[in-house]
Design goal:
The chain has 218 residues and is α+β, with helices and mostly antiparallel strands. The chain has two domains: 59 residues; 113 residues, Alpha-Beta Plaits (2-Layer Sandwich). Helices cover 67% and strands 11% of the residues. It has a four-stranded antiparallel β-sheet with strand order 2-3-1-4, with helices on both faces. The longest helix has 66 residues. The chain starts with a helix and ends with a helix.
Length: 218
């Protein structure tokens, strides 16, 4: 092999990659025009390089697809995790609301209820459950509570005060279990002095409606 062919064949790889300086590039191009042997070497290298380029492109495209799938999978995992957390939180909130609403009752008593009757009601409650919280709400407190609740509709309760109060006294009962609440409600069904037993979630509106109807029809 001629010395010039050896030099050119060493430079062909750089020529195919486009990394030669202008002088070396010119040397290779002039030699390939007149040397068939080096030209064949150049064609083989160029062919192999095309195959390598295609393989590299296929590999890059594959890696891009894999990366895209991984990103999509990661995104779906994050979204799924958020949804699961939200569902858990919503279930906890729903359970707390259910537990509160269904273990709290309000007992509305007659306006003319006696002290003995009130004591009897309280004893009946305590007999059904030792772990119970009893809060007495006076008619004045009921009226103030309703005024606060309907403060955006002042005309609704305008003119009502301690002298013409439409509300009755009540006991708010909080128990630890639904079973205790049901036992208390059942034990008070026939007790004198009770006007209505209602759940906390609705008693404010029911109390207002009940007392307004009492005034209208009495």
């Amino acid at each position: 092999m001629k010395k010039e062919c050896e030099i050119v064949q060493d430079l062909i790889f750089g020529y195919c990659d486009g990394t030669l300086n202008s002088a070396s590039k010119e040397l290779v191009e002039k030699h390939l025009v007149k040397c068939e042997e080096c030209k064949k070497v150049y064609e083989e290298i160029k062919k192999d390089k095309k195959i390598d380029d295609v393989d590299d492109k296929i590999e890059i495209d594959y890696l891009k697809r894999v990366n895209k799938k991984l990103k999509r999978k990661k995104f779906l995992i994050v979204i799924s995790s958020i949804c699961i957390v939200l569902l858990v939180v919503l279930h906890i909130i729903a359970f707390i609301c259910y537990y509160h609403d269904h273990t709290t009752i309000e007992i509305f008593m007659n306006k003319d209820i006696s002290e003995d009757q009130m004591t009897n009601i309280q004893n009946q409650i305590e007999n059904q459950s030792e772990d119970v919280e009893i809060t007495y709400v006076s008619p004045e407190e009921q009226l103030e509570k309703m005024k606060q609740r309907f403060k955006d509709n002042q005309d609704l309760l305008a003119g009502y005060n301690s002298e013409n109060n439409i509300f009755t006294p009540s006991f708010i009962i909080k128990t630890k279990t639904i079973q205790d609440m049901e036992k208390i409600e059942e034990s008070l069904e026939t007790v004198e002095g009770i006007k209505k037993i209602s759940s906390t979630s609705s008693n404010l509106y029911e109390s207002l409606i009940m007392n307004i109807f009492t005034i209208l029809y009495n």
